[in-house]
Amino acid sequence: MLDRHMKRFYCLAAALLAWTVLTAQAADPELEIRVIYDNTSAREDVPADWGFSSVVTFRGRRALFDSGTKPDLFLDNLKKMDVEPSSIETAMISHEHPDHRNGVYELYPLHPKMSVHFLEAFYDKAFSEASAIGMKVEREMRPYELIPGAYSTGMIPGDPPEQSLAIETSKGIVLIVGCSHPGVVTIVEQVRKQRGADSIRLLIGGMHMFRQNETQIRTQIARLKDLKVQRVMPAHCSGDLAAALFKEMYGANYESLGAGKILRLD
């Protein structure tokens, strides 16, 4: 009698454990992007500032894409967004400008096991500042896998050169761009070619249109639609005019961004 009761107990316990695991897995999205730093804010307690940074969690692996301008604000926003420095496995900096790389120099001492990826083409100051704190930087030129299923484009020529992050979700590529100095259309074309994709599920980040006129912006947006970019979330250096035109031309497939925003995609 006791054995039968014990067997029933163990069966129930096993079923409960399996249900708990499945429920936890179902609650975790395939991809989560936390916007740490941006020109606008999506939350009152997460201040805006010129620059960009996001934390990407893809299938349980976490990476940092860019690190904002002011290190103290970057670290404070990380804390407010519930991101522990030790949870970040690796970081990639899109290009050499300070509004995308400054924060990583203060983050690294808090988590020196984190790998950091710069482009080989970054100016010398970026590397000397890294050396000064003992940061070992991976110098990249070609496309590489940052975390499983998420790929750097490698260096795309521009002024300055830049790298972007293409994440191969189960429903298509999510492309994160830092500032799009090579041109956002050029970046999308490169990603489609590199990843063998005929469309982009979501384009998110800085598109460097803030100094362009309406005709120039409309031409690029039309080309992005031709390239089958399905959804857009412009940020940082995209500019107010570009945001308005993206909203007009993409309709429901446009969404604003901002520091403090959390995007979850299954």
Question: What is the fold's blueprint, element by element?
Answer:
Blueprint: H1 2-27, E1 31-37, E2 53-58, E3 61-65, H2 71-80, E4 90-92, H3 98-101, H4 104-107, E5 115-119, H5 124-132, E6 137-140, E7 144-147, E8 150-152, E9 165-169, E10 172-177, H6 184-195, E11 202-206, H7 214-226, E12 232-235, H8 240-250, E13 262-265
Helix pairs in contact: 7-8
Tell me what the structure shows.
- The chain is globular.
- It has a single domain (30-265), classed as Ribonuclease Z/Hydroxyacylglutathione hydrolase-like (Metallo-beta-lactamase, Chain A).
- The chain has helices spanning 2-27, 71-80, 98-101, 104-107, 124-132, 184-195, 214-226, 240-250, and strands at residues 31-37, 53-58, 61-65, 90-92, 115-119, 137-140, 144-147, 150-152, 165-169, 172-177, 202-206, 232-235, 262-265.
- The chain has eight helices and 13 strands.
- The protein is α/β, with parallel strands linked by helices.
- Residues 11-26 have low confidence and may be disordered.
- The protein has a seven-stranded mixed beta sheet with strand order 6-5-4-3-2-1-13. Strands 7-8-9-10-11-12 form a six-stranded mixed beta sheet.
